[in-house]
Every structure is written in structure tokens, then in C-alpha cells.
# Entry
Amino acid sequence: MEEPEPAGAAEPPPALRSLLPPREFLCSRKGQLLLAESVLSFITFICYIASLAASFMMAPLLEFMLALFLFFAYASKLNEKFKGLYWPLSDFLRCVTAAIIYFAISIAAVSKYNDGASKAAGVFGFIATIVFAIDFYITFNDLVTFLKQGGSDSPERRKSE
# Structure
């Protein structure tokens, strides 16, 4: 008869392990920013659903889905497989528009609606604005170094060298 393994030593099943992102991506700055963007967008979406400002729920839902897609795309290294799309540029444009949209709808939710869920959605929207602004600042610096070097290779490849 086999002895049961301790609870902390149990490995996830192989099917589940293939869905989880690698640990090194989760510990990277880009992985943490995309995870924070996904979580904040989802929380903001839930708050808008529960509030009187439900008309603003579409922006956090779209940003949640886009951040989640990019999280798994970067984690599974789709950016290295599909070279036709310059991933940092699309990520930069996503972050800039998300920061602007979150800032605008957060101001509207906090100033126009008086219920608690709208105020909470506005506060989480302001926090998401800061996270998206940090992400687009970092991505902008990658774009600038890419353009200064003539665009010969991607910023991720230069960092690894």
C-alpha cells in the first residue's frame, strides 16, 4: 500500500499545469502588471454592475478581456511565435486608451452617482488608471529604445542579451 504524499508536496495534474503560466513570467514586472490590470478591471466591472452607473460596465469588461488575453499570450510566448504584430506597440496603445477611459469614467462615476458601488467602482477605476499608466510608461520606454536602435530586433531579445 502506498503512503499518501504530504499536502504541500502534491503537484497539480498535468492538464492543469499546462494552463498555468510559468513562474518566471508571474514574477516578471510585465506579468505582475498584466495580472494587476486583469484583477482591477474585473473588480471595477463587478462594481459597475452593482451600481447605478451600469452604463460604464462595458469598458472594464473589454479591458479585462484584453488584459487577460495579453497575459496568456505573453505567458505562452505567442509574441515570439507571431512576428507580424509588434506586440509592445499594441500593448502601449491598449494601455494609453485604457488609462484615459478609466480616468474619464471614474470621474463621471464618482461625481455623478451617489451610491456606494459607483464610488467603489470609481476608486478602483482610479487605481486601475495608475496601473495602466505605469504599464504604458514602461512600454513607452521599450518603444523608444526600439526606435533609437533602428528597429532591428525586439526589446525582449535585447534584454536577454
Residues 28-149 form one domain. Residues 60 and 111 are 18 Å apart (CA to CA).
